[in-house]
Amino acid sequence: MGEAATRDVPESRGALIKRIDLRMFSYPMVGVGPGGIDMPEGKGSRARIAVRIETNDGAVGAYVGGQANSLAQAATCAKAVLGKDCFAREQAYEDIRRHLRKEDRMGAGVIDCALWDLAGQRLGVSVAQLLGGARRSVKAYASTWFGGDGGGLSTPEAYADFAEECYEMGYRAFKMHGWSDGGIEKDIGAVLELGKRVGGRMALMHDSACSFKTFADALAVGRACDEAGFFWYEDPYSDGGLSAHSHRRLRELIKTPLLLGEHVRGLESLATLVLADGTDFVRADPDFDMGITGTMKIAHFAEALGLDVELHAPGPAHRHCMAAIRNTNFYELSMVGPSRGNFNAPVYTCGYSDALDDVSADGTFPVPEGPGLGVSYDWEAIEKMTTQHVTIQ
Hints:
By secondary structure, this protein is of the alpha/beta class. It has two domains: 17-124 and 375-392, 2-Layer Sandwich (Enolase-like, domain 1), CATH 3.30.390.10; 130-366, TIM Barrel (Alpha-Beta Barrel), CATH 3.20.20. The protein contains 13 helices and 13 strands. The protein has helices at residues 3-8, 71-81, 89-99, 108-123, 127-130, 156-169, 185-198, 215-228, 244-253, 266-275, 291-304, 316-323, 379-385, and strands at 17-33, 37-55, 60-65, 137-144, 173-177, 203-207, 232-234, 258-260, 281-284, 309-311, 331-336, 364-366, 386-392. Strands 4, 5, 6, 7, 8, 9, 10, 11 and 12 form a nine-stranded mixed beta sheet that branches. The longest helix has 16 residues, at 108-123. It starts with a helix and ends with a strand.
């Protein structure tokens, strides 16, 4: 092709982004006490970010997710994509990555997920279809709140009782978040009790959320996981999953596979951890790892090494990603417990749910159908709960 033909190619293949609306909102939670303890009479709150991206021809993409501490980063990302082609997600990813080079990039996820929703809305196809996915449902595991006195998960036996309840609902996998007080005796007791009661019937996981203080404590619980036949052992101690050397040593001393990466941000950092032999399973999260774009990059990296990637937390974007990822096992239905505390935002008008009791009899949740992420939001409710509002235009 000559120079003239090259000039005929339009600079923009889609509409241009003209406005991004960001809302931080807070909603009440019941059934959970301080420190994330499952507690029947507990009350708390959680903050999320709602994003609406509008193009110059009136198309809209939306997403609800993110963390309370990432609004400023999300606003920076919004400024980076303003005026750009609405389909240019790879360019947006690269521009955002540079704009947030001094930050942890947590604000990128909500913007990227909204861009994927926008693309699906404009083309009339789901995000799963855009990603090449064929899976219609995802197999879930019940991922608990933390243990504590006076709560629904106060003893090792209570964890096993709840696991059996989840099994009867259809779940075939169960992850315990133990006691976050730094001790290990009750965690070990719960691990062994779970192995005795539901081992062989459910895939079992342990996640201390980095509460163990020493390598010795992490090793002791890991050996209990070995005895109970656990599927994985996650984020054992207080380094936050960042020390590849110590986790490599832990992997050499226990049989249970490790899962790290929830606190390691983005493709390059996770790749460094994996290539240093710090983990067996790879973690990714559209909210934490630069959106659907970043999550799929991590999934493909893990696939190239023959490893599985496990997505952190639930949500519509997570389900669509899983529909297109071969090398993944379970959808994390968190945080759940006997008290039925639900930490997910009550903002859907389409019947979408991540509630414990809404699992299908076969232990799965559906991948939403319809354009984009396949969900609709109650914007009136979101506006009433809004605590901060930023518009970029």
